[in-house]
From TrEMBL:
Gene Ontology MF annotations: acyltransferase activity, transferring groups other than amino-acyl groups
Cross-referenced InterPro entries: Acyl_CoA_acyltransferase, GNAT_dom
Keyword annotations from UniProtKB, A to Z: Transferase
Taxonomy, superkingdom: Bacteria
Domain N-acetyltransferase: 122-260
Protein name as annotated: GNAT family N-acetyltransferase
UniProt keyword annotation of Transferase present: yes
Gene3D superfamilies: 3.40.630.30
Biological source species: Streptomyces liliifuscus
Length: 260
């Protein structure tokens, strides 16, 4: 894989050329910033920017004014190669708080081992309705130690109702008890399928369930003609993904600004 070329393609397709996450959202370009504006329970924030030392502070202030005027918390999704180089300092000075850094990892679907299956006793069940979304949210809260699942619920329910072809969600069950879950975003017209939300309840980790969920989604992405898989990987999932054939391209850090 040509890392620089694939990263440039990712920036163009998935960031600068981003599409709304649902029919209740819009993507707007304001100067050197591409932002996503949705409902309170949706994702709001800056997806891409092309700024200089001369205009960065004004662009940041404009985004703060815009989102706070709407009463919305929002995220500036910063990548390590974004400019200017002191953008993290400028965001902190404007009232943003950095969340844990993640690693952008990408793999060519055709180079992955797609034959990985779930361990014995584990069933992978597609999520197609509100009951399935409840299972995914339940796993999310347990796997991420009490994390709020309201935004995830809203996102999945909206996608399944309005654009079901753009999302694949799956829950792993052990004797009908949900123990792991994950989803995949499929954006029409792009070459990237995004893997999101993969989490396993602590007592069930280390058994190959996460790997099986990656392979399961990769098979679907391959069937639908996507060339690349993309993951914002945590420190826990990064080694697993590397063993599966994913490459590290850069890092990304969410900078969050409160609603007021």
């Amino acid at each position: 894989m040509d890392h620089a070329a694939v990263l440039a393609l990712f920036d163009r397709d998935m960031r600068e050329g981003a599409r709304p996450f649902g029919l209740d959202s819009v993507v707007e370009r304001v100067g050197g910033v591409v932002r996503h504006v949705g409902p309170e329970k949706g994702w709001n924030g800056v997806l891409w920017s092309d700024l200089s030392e001369a205009d960065a502070d004004a662009a940041i202030a404009e985004q703060v004014r815009h989102f706070t005027s709407l009463g919305l918390e929002f995220e500036w999704k910063l990548y390590a190669h974004d400019r200017p180089v002191d953008l993290p300092r400028r965001l902190r000075a404007a009232g943003f708080t950095a969340e844990p850094e993640e690693t952008l990892m990408i793999a060519e679907v055709g180079e992955l081992d797609l034959d990985l299956r779930p361990p014995q006793g584990i069933e992978l069940r597609p999520v197609t309705d509100a009951a399935g979304v409840d299972l995914v949210a339940d796993v999310h809260e347990q796997a991420f130690y009490g994390a709020d699942s309201s935004r995830l619920r809203h996102l999945l329910l909206t996608q399944l109702a309005e654009e079901p072809d753009t999302v694949v969600a799956v829950v792993a069950l052990a004797d009908d008890v949900p123990v792991s879950s994950a989803r995949m975003e499929l954006i029409p017209g792009t070459r990237f399928a995004g893997l999101w939300g993969g989490g396993t309840i602590e007592a069930w980790r280390g058994r190959g369930i996460y790997r099986a969920l990656v392979a399961h989604r990769a098979r679907i992405a391959a069937d639908r003609g996507y060339r690349y898989l993309q993951v914002d990987a945590s420190d826990e999932s990064r080694p697993i993904l590397e063993r599966l054939g994913f490459s590290r391209l850069t890092t990304t850090t969410p900078y969050v600004h409160p609603a007021s």
